[in-house]
Design a protein that fits this description.
Elements lengths: L1 E6 L5 E6 L7 H10 L4 H12 L10 H23 L1 H4 L5 H20 L3 H6 L4 H13 L1
Antiparallel strand pairs: 1-2
Helix pairs in contact: 2-3, 3-5, 5-7
Length: about 140
Amino acid sequence: MAQYNIHHTCGHEETVQIYGTNVHGERQRKAEWLESKPCRDCERKAIREETLTGAAELTGSDKQVNWANDLRAKAIDDIKTKLAKLDTQYIAAPQDWKAAQRKAGETIITAMLAETSAKTIIDHRDNLVSHYGAVAQQAAK
């Protein structure tokens, strides 16, 4: 168990506790690996910005907007992850079912990106996917 000062590629510095043995230099390799990437906060921010590209601007206080954007980005990332696993987890499923799942996922993502109210996203934070699935169905009618 040792603490290392890590200088990330983004320019931030942090002290990290690295656990495990160091018989073969494992801790030093992990410290070098951590230094070869941006810090967690910058990495999360980059993923959030990438996920929310083309999203509608949210209305609300700064705190609400930040929280709602975090919720929205996480939900969209979860949907994209599940859609990417369709072919590997549901090998025996019919192709038309997989296509319908992809279409439904994309329409939910589109509905989430079109939302302009931070309050709505925060109010439905426990069931964002089902809420925007219903919104997408209403819009299709």
